[in-house]
Fold this protein.
Amino acid sequence: MTQLFMNSHDALVFAFNFSSEQYGISEMARLLGPAAGSSKGLVGLDGAAQRGLIMQEVDRLDRLHKACIVARYSQKFKMCACCRNASMPLSEYKEAVDVLAEWSTMHITGISLRKVREISIRGFYEDGVSFKDEITELNVAKTTAYDQRALIVAGLKRLDSEAQGAIFPALEEMCGFS
């Protein structure tokens, strides 16, 4: 059996980035033989099936662990069809952030501004989120907001690590890496 992925990270990146709009290999390409960078043949139905198997394992995780995996690996935004702006959050990512914001409300004491919790979580999983600019807009005391963010990030690190540990054994067995 050919090893498809080097580790669980590679498998999850593949699954969350596989597009159903990717096309299979044409008959001419098959006749010419394998091409460099052919992605180990994971296109068309083969790719969709592999993605489905990986996503099935993600769906088996508990709600919080699944939210961490989705927030880490899913695409976060989509292109708006009318204005060509890539700032529309994808529903699966937004839902994952909402689940983690709910978790932070129950497990982190202190400030209860949902926007501060959301910005802290998004900043943990996204590049380019400016916490300073966001709290300035909200007119929140900086020390309170930064203290709250530190607590949320520490909790997210633990929770995200647990989520990675929960998905790894299933993907290790399924994909055949060690």
In short: Helices lie at 8-17, 27-32, 44-59, 63-73, 91-107, 114-125, 131-138, 142-175. The first strand starts at residue 77 and ends at 78. Residues 1-59 form one domain.
